[in-house]
Amino acid sequence: MLVAAGTSAQVFPARHVRLVVGFAPGGSGDFLTRLLADEMSKDLGAAVVTENRAGAAGTVAAATVAKASADGYTVLNGAPLAINKALYKTLAYDSDKSFTPVTNVADGPHIIVVNNALPVKNLEELIARAKDSPGKLFMADAGSGSSTHLAGVQFMSVAGVQFTTVHYNGGGPAAQSLVAGDTQVMFATVPSVIGFIRGGRVRALAITAHSASSAIPGIPGAVEAGLAGYASYSSFGLYVPAGTPAPVVRRLHEAAVKALSKPEVREKIASQGYVAAPSRSPEAFEAKLFEEAPMWERVVRESGAGDK
After folding, report:
1. What are phi and psi of 105, to 5 degrees?
2. Is the confidence at residue 4, as pLDDT, over 70?
3. Rounded-to-integer distance, Cα 148 and Cα 134, Å
4. Domain 2-107+235-303 is of which CATH architecture?
5. 196: alpha, beta or left, given left = phi > 0 and alpha = psi -120 to 50?
């Protein structure tokens, strides 16, 4: 068995690797996946191909990877698995047993943006308008249970307001709806809207961190903008099917960490409002996920977004 494991590590990868992401092109997950795929392919010496499998807050992509052969050739780039475990009573996979964690990829806050036609200039004005007209403002998100959905629901709870939620299959389509005026507000991942912000097509009010970020200059944090007690972040990490040989897991971890350690890659990630945050080992990533799971369960429960 040891000889077989060593052989698998030496020959891996012998063909292209699929890097599956659960959201449509244009959002943060897609941006990070394509950047990582390009960089990992250089170290692995084989093509790493991005595959978008949008739907059900990333569970379609997760199910695809969970059912794949445990050989390292199908990898998931997704949000913490504890989120969907808390959101859905029934899943097509076991969040605790179907995957082996490889590494954390990146973390970042959301950004609160509104359609230009909405006459609000800051967070306090948005809250006041929402309180005056409960349910009259439409909130776009990247899908039910997505980080953008949870960020918006958390905001409504803390601010004491009510939006009408509209779910889309990814941050890109959601942002397009905001630009078009079909929706009026969005708690977006930065890559989904940063181009629209810079082009003056949507208005940024705040980021969902306590204070401003140097990666997103000129936009205040939520506390600075007048809403104490509110913060929300999104996170992505790599997973492979349970049973994938340990040498293959380590090889994927090595390639991802090498990619995420490059200054030019870190700069690209930072330009989109994220921080590259690879784990020092697959075991360290697994420990992080275990430690954070109760927090995600609490957030989903308090948001009311889970299955009843």
Report:
1. -110, -60
2. no
3. 20
4. 3-Layer(aba) Sandwich (3.40)
5. alpha
